[in-house]
């Protein structure tokens, strides 16, 4: 909950003075006996697992994406897989959907998370209970959430449509209609993930010094002024984290979409990650890996500039 | 007047939150304890009969006790992966924080890459197959460790930054260096952040669906999430059993939530804000 400001302590707190040189000399002498104080050997287990299971496959992906591949032998086909991905409509729709999904979920998580964050840091009597209630879905498995909501969103007989019917709205076939399927899944994603955004905002808002609010009160500003000129600008680090986190999560999202629609109806709610799985199941390993490389490119091309852009704003509050 | 408005706002906030967040969970619970005929309505009614025990027994014994085996698999997977993550990440985070230099810069870069880059699925399968680890629990454990390391390293690094270097130096004067220094002096001090890492990673790995789906397919060694996914097509007519399965699978995270809510929230916000 602390370090909301960029972490500058990374070099380690070396408090100066108080006869340190003498102790340093001692320490150096001792070090000669026992080897370096911070041996690189401590990296070894982590580096080994990370390299073998993560780095090597990631590097190999760039080669296998250019091949027709059966796991046992691979035939180099150049950029064919990528051409397929961009030319075939049921594959290229994944790009649009991936970006739409990430943008919609991040935007809603920022807006709703900020709203709930403000609400749950105010003097509400039940705020402890509400905080827990909003956060709990974060810890429930995505598959369970997906199954539950595909039942709740059933056309006509589902609870959501029944509730809407009570107020005279005939709800759409949320998951069965090509125009609403992706957005419905995105809404469920927000339902499940907004708790994390909320607790990040709560931590951010609580770290704002109360002096600012007192200053607004002295100047006779109301609740809107407090929000617009203090809470909103000074919770910027929280906004930054929420946007980056939900963008990374949203672009890579697979399990919720897969349990709720399997990319359907047709392939209208397919994202890159679900196409990767479908092509893998169909045995097109090269094509699947090309999807992985494209997902890598999309994530890097969006998140790295976004991170840079948002990080730059952080300097001038 | 002001009090009245506040009470009104509170009531409204509570009503909305209850509708949006409580209803789905109550629906899960209610459907899980109904008999199969009433559950088929999939509505929000009060159960007319309560075959709770019968539903539990039916779910657990279904398909030759696959759920029990899945529970064992998930437990082994979670415990082993989290133990490895804690040890590896604590050591790496410690050197990363204490020793700057070219290797440190590279390690920092790799940690951030691990957070952003989506894993390349089929090449990982290919590699695991070459190592003889594909479709085995140890293979999946290594996958979970590799994908979970980055986040844990960040948490450990941030915590170690607050431990003064004078402590290391004092230990060195007493003749303690390298591995002894870390395991005897530093690691015991990391208890608070270790608990945070254990909690967040346990929940994440227990709930993980994608990696078991890819790297540990098949019914023999399925994890609970994969079993639930398979039940979805099997029980499309017996909703009470499907939802009882969901309830049973949600118990471990619920327990973690009840006892360690604050720790989990602290861990997730700290990781988020620094990540």
From TrEMBL, chain A:
Subcellular location, record wording: Cell membrane
Membrane spanning residue stretches: 40-66, 99-121, 133-153, 190-209, 230-251, 293-310
Biased composition (Basic and acidic residues): 1-12
InterPro entries per the UniProt record, alphabetical: ABC_transporter_permease, MetI-like, MetI-like_sf
Pfam families attached to this UniProt entry: BPD_transp_1
Superkingdom to which the source organism belongs: Bacteria
Keyword Isomerase in record: no
UniProt domain ABC transmembrane type-1: residue ranges: 95-306
Keywords linked to the UniProt accession: Cell membrane, Membrane, Transmembrane, Transmembrane helix, Transport
GO biological process: transmembrane transport
Topology in membrane: Multi-pass membrane protein
Region of interest called Disordered, as start-end residue ranges on this chain: 1-31
GO CC terms of this entry: plasma membrane
Similarity remark: Belongs to the binding-protein-dependent transport system permease family.
Record's protein name: Raffinose/stachyose/melibiose transport system permease protein
Record lineage: Bacteria, Bacillati, Actinomycetota, Actinomycetes, Streptosporangiales
UniProtKB/TrEMBL annotation, chain B:
Domain ABC transmembrane type-1: 71-260
InterPro entries, sorted: MetI-like (IPR000515), MetI-like_sf (IPR035906)
Keyword terms of this UniProt record: Cell membrane, Membrane, Transmembrane, Transmembrane helix, Transport
GO terms for cellular component: plasma membrane
Gene3D superfamilies: MetI-like
Membrane topology: Multi-pass membrane protein
Subcellular location: Cell membrane
Stretches that traverse the bilayer: 12-33, 76-96, 108-128, 140-160, 181-206, 239-260
Keyword Cell inner membrane: no
Zinc-finger in keyword set: no
Domain of life, source organism: Bacteria
Biological process (GO), any one: transmembrane transport
CDD domains: TM_PBP2
Sequence similarity: Belongs to the binding-protein-dependent transport system permease family.
Protein name, entry field: Raffinose/stachyose/melibiose transport system permease protein
Taxonomic classification: Bacteria, Bacillati, Actinomycetota, Actinomycetes, Streptosporangiales
């Amino acid at each position: 909950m602390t370090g909301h400001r960029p972490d500058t302590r990374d070099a380690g707190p070396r408090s100066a003075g108080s006869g340190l040189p003498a102790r340093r000399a001692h320490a150096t002498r001792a070090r000669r006996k026992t080897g370096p104080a911070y041996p690189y050997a401590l990296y070894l287990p982590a580096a080994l697992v990370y390299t073998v299971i993560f780095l090597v496959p990631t590097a190999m992906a760039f080669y296998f994406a250019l091949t027709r591949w059966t796991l046992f032998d691979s035939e180099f086909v150049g950029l064919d897989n990528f051409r397929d991905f961009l030319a075939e409509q049921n594959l290229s729709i994944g790009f649009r959907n991936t970006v739409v999904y990430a943008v919609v979920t991040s935007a809603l998580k920022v807006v709703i998370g900020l709203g709930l964050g403000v609400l749950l840091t105010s003097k509400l009597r039940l705020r402890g209970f509400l905080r827990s209630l909003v956060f709990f879905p974060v810890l429930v498995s995505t598959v369970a959430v997906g199954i539950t909501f595909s039942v709740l969103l059933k056309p006509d007989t589902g609870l959501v449509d029944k509730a809407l019917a009570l107020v005279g709205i005939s709800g759409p076939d949320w998951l069965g209609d090509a125009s609403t399927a992706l957005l419905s899944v995105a809404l469920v994603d927000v339902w499940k993930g907004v708790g994390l955004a909320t607790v990040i905002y709560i931590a951010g808002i609580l770290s704002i010094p109360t002096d600012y609010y007192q200053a607004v009160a002295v100047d006779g500003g109301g609740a809107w002024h407090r929000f617009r000129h203090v809470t909103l600008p000074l919770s910027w680090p929280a906004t930054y984290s929420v946007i980056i986190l939900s963008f990374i999560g949203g672009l890579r999202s697979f399990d919720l979409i897969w349990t709720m629609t399997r990319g359907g109806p047709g392939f209208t709610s397919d994202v890159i990650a679900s196409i990767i799985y479908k092509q893998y199941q169909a045995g097109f390993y090269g094509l699947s890996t090309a999807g992985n490389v494209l997902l890598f490119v999309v994530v890097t091309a969006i998140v790295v500039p976004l991170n840079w852009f948002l990080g730059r704003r952080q300097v001038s509050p | 007047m002001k009090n009245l408005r506040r009470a009104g706002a509170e009531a409204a906030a509570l009503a909305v939150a209850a509708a949006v967040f409580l209803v789905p969970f109550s629906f899960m619970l209610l459907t899980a304890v109904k008999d199969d005929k009433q559950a088929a309505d999939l509505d929000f009614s009060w159960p007319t009969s309560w075959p709770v025990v019968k539903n539990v027994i039916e779910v657990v014994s279904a398909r030759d006790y696959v759920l029990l085996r899945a529970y064992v698999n998930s437990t082994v997977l979670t415990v082993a992966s989290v133990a490895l993550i804690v040890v590896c990440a604590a050591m790496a985070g410690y050197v990363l924080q204490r020793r700057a230099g070219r290797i440190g810069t590279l390690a920092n870069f790799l940690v951030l890459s691990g957070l952003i880059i989506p894993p390349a699925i089929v090449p990982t399968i290919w590699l695991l197959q070459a190592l003889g680890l594909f479709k085995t629990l140890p293979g999946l454990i290594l996958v979970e460790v590799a994908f979970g390391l980055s986040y844990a390293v960040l948490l450990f690094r941030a915590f170690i930054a607050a431990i003064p270097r004078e402590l290391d130096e004092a230990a060195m004067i007493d003749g303690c260096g390298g591995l002894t220094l870390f395991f005897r002096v530093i690691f015991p001090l990391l208890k608070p952040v270790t608990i945070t890492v254990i909690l967040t990673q346990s929940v994440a790995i227990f709930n993980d669906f994608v990696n078991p789906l890819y790297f540990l397919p098949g019914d023999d060694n399925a994890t609970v999430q994969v079993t639930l996914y398979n039940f979805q097509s099997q029980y499309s007519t017996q909703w009470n059993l499907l939802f009882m399965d969901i309830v049973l699978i949600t118990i471990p995270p619920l327990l973690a939530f009840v006892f360690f809510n604050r720790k989990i929230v602290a861990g997730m916000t700290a990781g988020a804000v620094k990540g």
